[in-house]
Specification:
Layout: H1 2-8, E1 15-17, E2 33-37, E3 40-43, E4 48-49, E5 55-59, E6 62-65, E7 77-79, E8 87-94, E9 98-108, E10 116-123, E11 126-133, E12 146-155, E13 158-166, E14 182-191, H2 200-220
Antiparallel strand pairs: 1-14, 2-3, 3-6, 4-5, 5-8, 6-7, 7-14, 8-13, 9-12, 9-14, 10-11, 10-13
Amino acid sequence: MLAGFALCGVTAWGQAIPVPTFGAITTYPSSGVNYVAGGFADLVPGAAFGQGGGWTVDSGTVDLISTLWQSPDGLQSVDMDGQSAGQISTTLTIPSAGTVTVDFFLAGNAGGPPVTKLLDVALGSSVQETTYTLTPNNYSGNMYWTTVSMVFPSQVAGQETLTFTSLDGPLGSPGDGDDWGAAVGTVTASENAGIPDGGMTATLLGMGVAGLAWLRRRLVM
């Protein structure tokens, strides 16, 4: 019985937090489309896109990629540099206070500079930076996708904004971008995923086992 109480106090690590996908191939939004070209759509600020219109272009422009290249899961992805470096966001509902892990696919548009694509990922006021560096082998037929995992501790329960921001500068500037940014694939999130509990689980289980042993001795006596 005490073991049962101990287990009830342990957080269930890895609880999924719903995140909209970027949508199925060629599902472009009904508004906010600057133009459609070969296998992608250029989106302007205010455009709502992806599953249920759950993502929004906040600033700059981004390219919603359908067939220009293939994402790892066969869904659409986003080139974070459209005609200018862009920013996109969605709203997450965090079920309870704790640590949130955000995972996503990352690659880079090999069509132009910079060689190293810069990207900020923010959950509320907590911001982290990541990069993707092209190799001579990168091209649209093989994007060499990687998986990025970012841990955001000390999150509160409730709604919070998840934001992706390209840090590539204008063409001709250091770290120039425009048209060839970081490529972001499907984003997922989970609460307390993979975060150790400092031995609390083992401690509680130990207390439960000790309690059962004490109870057994009492019954024998």
